[in-house]
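Researcher: Next entry in the queue.
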Amino acid sequence: MASAARIRSNYAVVLAALVVAVAAIFIADTVTDYAVAVAIFHTAVMLVATRFVGVRAVAALATACVVLTCLSFVLTPAGDYKIGLINTGISVVAIGVTAYLGLKLKGAEAQVHEARERITRIARLTTLGQLTASIAHEVSQPLAAIATSAGAGRRWLVQPEPRTEKALAAVDRIIREADRASEILDRVRRLARNEAPASSVFDLNAAVTEIIALSSSAAGASGAMIDADLAEGLPSAFADRVQVQQVVSNLLLNGMEAPAVSKRLRRLAVMTRAVGDRLRVAVADDGEGLSAEAAEHLYDAFWTTKAGGFGLGLTICRAIVEANGGRIWTEASPLGGACFVFDLPVAGDDT
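Model: Structure for this entry, 351 residues:
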């Protein structure tokens, strides 16, 4: 309310100043002789008016300036009449042209403003769609694991001699995956709001080992085997543990779904290394590798070569890695396929 009142007050002040300027120009044009084309200064009033007041006010001021210029010509007491007539004509044309161009400019500005608002609305809708797709993509993995564990637990329980210990293990996996789905939702929301990751000091090898264990069921279903080559004695990492696991899980899933070279057992490898003050994680597969087109569009949102894929996995991976102070890239795979590598900061003494 206060802001609206202040705007109206400023508008009134500007309009009053413009009226005073028009009146001053009229008086000066009238008291000088015909040879002094004072009325041409009305064009300056038009330029200011098109910047600060509305279309109707500009049109009214332009009309008033033309009328006052003609009236001033009639009331001017001295000077060459023909020169005065020419100056009056030039002034009227200049006022009209300036007002016309000013109104066209205001119209163009209004169109630009409207287009900007439309683009903003479209961007919001697109962001909402990307967030929805991101959540669906990320949560689909723990949900699939929950379904697999639930099916396994049911099979253990319906046997003639129920294997309760196996069933309880399946229930424990369901609980872990449900907790992971909840954490992923929270992290995706944080990512969408550009909030800082919940960074903490953690054991990188332990986090990677945990995600390999959670991915073992999916790997077995896809006919893949995961090898772990984890360097010993790594310093602690400083990043969002759940988000890092999310990246490793996405890269493993990509490796499982990569086109195979043959029908033999698929191989995946997860490697960790310390390089200077950085920790590196590499996920390699023995698939066909990356085509030139795929390499060009790797991190483009909604671009995918998979039937039914979202095209958001690597986009999310890069966003997460960069949010945690790292970067992600590709290297030659030791297994012959694709190899994704990302690095993370080492926990310092002050973390």
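Model: The chain has a mean pLDDT of 78.
Researcher: Noted, moving on.
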